Amino acid sequence: MTLHNAARFLPEAIESLLNQTYEDFTLLAFDDASTDETGSIVKNYARQDSRIKYHRNPRNLGMIDNHRLAFKTAQRTVKGLDYFGWAGDHDIWLPDWLRAHVETLNENPNVVLTYPLAVPIGIDGEELSATFPKFDNSGMNKSERIRAACLKMKGAGNMVYGLYRAEALAKTSVFPRCMHSDRVLMLQLSVHGTFKNIETPLWRRRYVDNNPWGSDGPVLSYEQWSDRQRPRVFNGNPPWYSHFPILSHAWILIFSLSIRPRGGDYVNLHWGLLMACLHLSRRREHLRQDLRIVAKKVLSKLKLISYQLPR
Fold first, then answer.
1. Which of these, 100, 276, 108, lies nearest to 203 by C-alpha position?
2. Which residue, 42, 70, 88, 164, is the most exposed by fewest CB within 10 angstroms?
3. What is the mean pLDDT of each run of 10 residues along the chain (311 residues)?
């Protein structure tokens, strides 16, 4: 569970996890330098339940690095780590959430990620009117599932909060340091197995701004959404390539699969370039926006250099 200044919702979130009917799990709580009562709340629960382990970052890392730290620590500290999942600090999980996901992974060895239907809720727990897209490529062969992920997948933002086969997740970039990192993670993960949707509403996802995404995409435009999210996911210090999300996605796929794959296994070498091309072809409009941003920044830089040259 990644934490940051959501003390208002935290007790309900923690209790929904502790009340799971499948009880054999460890809850690692990663507090990203919260300034509210988050720390004291978690510590109080940890005194009552030994399954909870609390960690506080000395400084705010941002969403991506805190998620990466959570998985890295789980690999190092949890003995016999078979399955792993991220949990937010403001959502609610129905009692059978974990049992249903563990049973799905146990019964389907080719599935590397399973996730449920999500019910969007508002700040006070009221259900919101929205239809989330869902994606399932279970039963497909490797080529089919990868192409489906590149060309048809929707709803990565919900899928990323499912339950993973830890061994498969470790072969990806985990939470790539880019914008829309959940989408890139799903693409990388599709190389190692299939995704299965549990068609039961087992997760209540809270939107504190009462503004969930509908089935037709985000309310905000591509550029607006990226600009709003960038400071939060990188803690105000985003890498330069974060301004060109789709171009960075293509490079990450090529680099992580074809140039320097995890563990030095080049069995998926040919998929890096192919997936990058498929992803770019699907996101053509976003790619055009990326290229326009690149052109603006290059021209701005050239003007600055020209201005600084001695006359």
1. 100
2. 88
3. 97 98 98 97 98 96 96 95 97 98 98 97 92 94 98 96 98 94 97 98 92 55 77 85 92 96 90 97 92 83 62 54
Q: So what's the pLDDT on residue 210?
A: 75
Q: Is residue 204 part of a domain?
A: no
∠ Cα 119 113 69 (to 5°):
90
pTM, rounded to two decimals: 0.91
Q: Which amino acid is at 48?
A: Q
Domain with residue 71: its CATH number is 3.90.550.10
Domain span at 61: 1-90
Rounded to whole angstroms, how far apart are CA atoms 257 and 288?
Answer: 25
